[in-house]
Design brief:
alpha/beta, 6-stranded parallel β-sheet, 5 helices
């Protein structure tokens, strides 16, 4: 099975490192890059062409929903997962409207993220219209 290529985008270096360590323990995943800003995310998305972008919603001077739309415009096949500490239907709906393929709350992230990545690895991920709204 081909490994899922993941780009991690989050301004918090500690969270990025912990998430990368978690992802690298998953046999179906390879982390192709880690970035901290909107600008780096746009550049590295084009340069690396990842299968999945894990996008932290707390990026300085960036709107994660606008960034999601920009990333999708540049790479429509890339799956984008917004990772957030914010809960509630409003955030889930904004994620869906921006083109995100999933919205996962950071609290309790491991199991939902593992399931999402396994589905991508198996190439059984449903289309954007059937967005997975995963709550911890």
């Amino acid at each position: 099975m081909e490994k899922v290529r993941v780009l991690v985008v989050d301004e918090h270096v500690g969270f990025r490192k912990a998430l990368t360590a978690f992802l690298e323990s998953h046999h179906e995943v390879t982390v192709v890059g880690e970035v901290a800003s909107e600008r780096e995310a746009l550049r590295m998305s084009q340069a690396l062409n990842p299968d999945v972008i894990l996008l932290g919603s707390e990026i300085a001077a960036a709107d994660p929903f606008r960034l999601t739309a920009m990333l999708k415009e540049g790479s429509p096949e890339t799956k984008i997962v917004i990772l957030s500490i914010k809960t509630g239907l409003l955030y889930h709906m904004r994620a869906k409207m921006s083109g995100a393929d999933a919205y996962i709350e950071k609290d309790g992230i491991k199991q939902p993220l593992r399931r999402f990545l396994s589905s991508v690895a198996e190439r059984n991920l449903s289309t954007k219209s059937n967005l997975r709204m995963v709550a911890a």
